[in-house]
Specification:
This protein has 99 residues and is mostly helical. The chain has a domain of 39 residues. 52% of the residues lie in helices and 8% in strands. The chain is rod-shaped and about 70 Å long.
Length: 99
């Protein structure tokens, strides 16, 4: 027994419109191959979004590691010039002598 109250993905996609270069297309009037390309583009977009989230997570971790590293440095090396707030920018950490 099938549940007709929940539309399946393909049926939902058939009733959509897509805008490409300023031209609106009804997806149900496109070829099967064109609809497959739309699905592929959506999958790639989802993957790109997931990877961007991963990059944000990694950048946050890198900054936390930079903060932890700075807290382990000798006190005189950590001193910020008077009147300046000490901040950590992990992108300013350079590894010297590594090729």
């Amino acid at each position: 027994m099938s549940d007709t109250s929940v539309p399946n993905f393909q049926d939902a996609m058939l009733k959509q419109k897509i805008n490409i270069d300023g031209v609106e297309y009804e997806t149900d009037k496109l070829s099967d191959a064109a609809r497959e390309m739309i699905v592929n583009i959506r999958v790639v977009d989802m993957k790109i979004n997931a990877l961007q989230q991963e990059v944000a997570i990694m950048q946050t971790a890198k900054n936390a590691y930079g903060q932890a590293l700075k807290s382990m440095l000798p006190a005189d090396a950590q001193a910020a010039p008077e009147g300046e707030k000490k901040t950590v920018d992990a992108s300013s950490i350079d590894f010297l002598g590594s090729d």
